[in-house]
Amino acid sequence: MVKLALRAARPVINPWRKSFPDTTLYECQDGALHGMPGRAISISLADANREHKQAETILNRAYGKRGYGSGHQIARGRHSVTFTASADGAMIGTITLSVDSPRGLSIQSTFGAELDRLRAAGGKLCELTKFAFDPRPDSRPLLAALFHIIYLYGTERFDCSDLLIEVNPRHVKFYEVMLGFTKLGALRTNNAVGAPAQLLHLPVAEIGVNIGKLASGGHFSAHTLYRDFFDPCREAELRARIEDLVHGDGNGHRPVAPRQRRFGSIRLLIERALLEVRQEKRVAA
User: Fold this and answer.
1) Is pTM beyond 0.85 here?
2) Residue 100, number of CB atoms within 10 A of its CB
3) What is the pLDDT of residues 22-60, one digit of tens each?
4) Which H or E run includes 46?
5) What contacts 121, CB < 8 A, 6 or more positions away?
6) Phi then psi for 104, rounded to 5 degrees?
7) Residue 195 CB burial class (10 angstroms; 0-12, 13-18, ≥19)
8) Are 149 and 240 in contact, with CB atoms under 8 Å apart?
């Protein structure tokens, strides 16, 4: 858990590169687009052992400063993927997305009852964990890009319905205002770090609705990260890149999409439509 000091910064240029190393999801050669002018920005998957070690070093440095210990390890395997953000080749942030499995999620021991209720309702759960990010005041646009890419990758690979994150109570407001999370369950103690913890929940379909609202010119709070998400054209390019990594060989060669993936995409569209209807009913009431 890291304290983030953020300041709004709107994109002014659009320097896009179409050549990628194997696990790079996004590259921008002039970071002015993300509040870091003159710096080369990239967001990648931590695929190699060296990248995981670097991510763990950043994580444990940040956690250690907060008194959460400095011996944390980042999960690996087919149920987890770790994202990294870099500036001029130096890693400045990391976060891991994990999907529910027979082994459960890392938050199971603290918030097991809440997770079981979501599963019983038919939810497919995923969690954000092991988050550490450069707290410089101009990092908000890059943080928005990171969360947008996590959403695109997560819906393409895992097709989850419910996103969860466990945070220190002092960070609850950030996730509520910036991304639309809501509290789920009561305050607990995370025994692994010896600190209070609050579980937050966000329907994945709601993220899609907010991205669609951005594309249609909808109004957002000045504080939300959605204002700094990618535009529809850039999102389409990113999704194509992610589809290539998830379902192809990373070099533009993809097999025909399986029926399960097509049905997953249809389900996500239906969930978005239903959520929009519910929101319209609330406004009308």
Assistant:
1) no
2) 21
3) 789 999 887 776 767 778 889 999 987 888 899 999 999
4) none
5) none
6) 80, -170
7) middle
8) no
Residue 140 structural domain: 24-284
Distance separating alpha carbons of residues 285 and 283, to the nearest angstrom: 5
Domain total in the chain: 1
List helix spans (H) across the chain: 49-65, 108-120, 140-157, 172-179, 204-215, 232-247, 259-284
**Residue 94 bridge partners (DSSP):** 84, 132
The pairing of beta strand 24-28 with beta strand 41-45: antiparallel
Domain of residue 29, CATH code: 3.40.630.30
- On the CB side of 28, CA atoms within 13 Å amount to 27
Tokens linked to 264 = 């997953």
Residue at 6 is within a domain? no
Q: Do 112 and 102 contact (CB within 8 A), yes or no?
A: no
Instruction: Give the pLDDT mean for 139-168.
Output: 94
Segment 92-150, tens digit of pLDDT: 999 999 999 999 999 999 999 999 999 999 999 999 999 998 776 577 888 999 999 99
Distance between terminal CA atoms of the chain?
38
176 Cβ contact list (under 8 Å, min separation 6): 182, 200
Residue with tokens 């019983």, as numbered in its chain? 120
- Residue with token string 């003159």: 38
